[in-house]
Write a structure and sequence with these properties.
three-stranded antiparallel sheet; 12 strands; 10 helices; binds S-adenosylmethionine; 289 residues; alpha/beta; Rossmann fold
Length: 289
């Protein structure tokens, strides 16, 4: 376990406990599972996710030159980008020093930077002497782990120039419960926020900040409550609440300004041939920890 310096903001003291478990080496090992996937398995794995499909469509169409990933963990999305979209430069930031260390060891050519959850995204980027505006911002499974996710969403939008793609969790019915004490997940021997956004509220928060944008959401319904050590509001254990893993694309420069599309799109796990699976197992056993 590593220590994390959490800024000078007095509110940060209470906040720190919701973020400290990301420093655990277990997080780095867990999220490094993809590192033993063969390249073609990795591509299939990422492309089974709606957020990557959304992002890919745009990357192929618009050929941007810079992408920022927020919450890059151990850098496997960097590998995916190098394999599939080598054109845009890639920069990843994360608060987990353990995960970043692993990313840097595996991919010395990658640009991975530490950020501090007590500072805003813009401050973190500035502190690392990185640009504070990015053509494309991508963030997978990070927003719902924030103590103040709507403020974090505003920060993500604030640093995005053309497109923000994120993956998070939504519910069709019932309000967003923002109190992490009532909506959290037990991970790496500690609790972290796990906020399930009412889908209309989420759209509203985006539109309030960028009224002219186009928003596309791909919703993959599943019951979220009780799975994966999640301690969620009771309704999230019921199918009728309509909880989902949801990919969101916010297009800041679009010909379809103000258009919002919510599309149900089921995700299926990638299927890998048996030979690849055996090789993957062997590599997994050999993988350094
Ligand atoms: C659930 S993991 C997802 C990792 C990776 N995006 C993926 O999907 O494989 C969340 C990651 O976000 C990082 N994180 C959490 N809060 C963050 C913040 N405020 N800024 C940057 N990274 C953050 C964590 O350290 C962790 O590596």
């Amino acid at each position: 376990m590593r220590s994390l310096t959490v800024g000078t903001d007095p509110a940060a003291a209470g906040k720190e406990r919701w973020y400290s478990d990301w420093q655990n080496d277990e997080h780095a090992s867990h999220f490094d599972g993809r590192s033993s996937l063969l390249n073609r398995m990795l591509v299939r794995n990422y492309e089974s996710f709606n957020d990557v499909r959304l992002l890919n469509d745009y990357l192929v169409r618009s050929r941007p030159t810079h992408l920022l990933e927020v919450g890059c963990a151990t850098g496997e999305f960097y590998r995916y980008m190098r394999l599939k979209h080598p054109r845009p430069s890639y920069t990843g930031i994360d608060i987990s020093l353990a995960a970043l260390e692993r990313a840097r060891q595996k991919y010395p050519a990658g640009h991975f930077f530490a950020s501090d959850p007590a500072m805003s995204l813009e401050e973190n980027l500035g502190r690392q002497r990185l640009p504070t505006r990015w053509e494309i911002v991508y963030t997978k499974d990070v927003l719902h782990h924030q103590t103040d996710p709507f403020s974090f969403l505003a920060q993500l939008l604030g640093v995005s120039l053309r497109l923000l793609v994120l993956r998070t969790r939504t519910r069709d019915r019932g309000p967003t419960v923002l109190d992490p004490e009532s909506s959290c997940q037990y991970h790496y021997r500690g609790w972290m926020p796990y906020i399930v956004f009412n889908i209309e509220e989420l759209i509203d928060q985006i539109r309030r900040r960028i009224p002219d944008c186009e928003v596309i959401l791909y919703r993959n319904h599943m019951v979220l409550g009780g799975v994966g050590n999640r301690f969620l509001p009771k309704e999230c254990y019921l199918p009728e609440t309509g909880t989902a893993e949801t990919a969101v694309g916010v297009f800041l420069e679009s010909d379809h300004r103000q258009r919002v599309q919510v599309i149900d799109r089921e995700e299926r796990s990638a299927h890998h041939p048996i030979g690849e699976r055996i090789l993957h197992r062997l590599l997994g056993m050999l993988r350094w920890r």
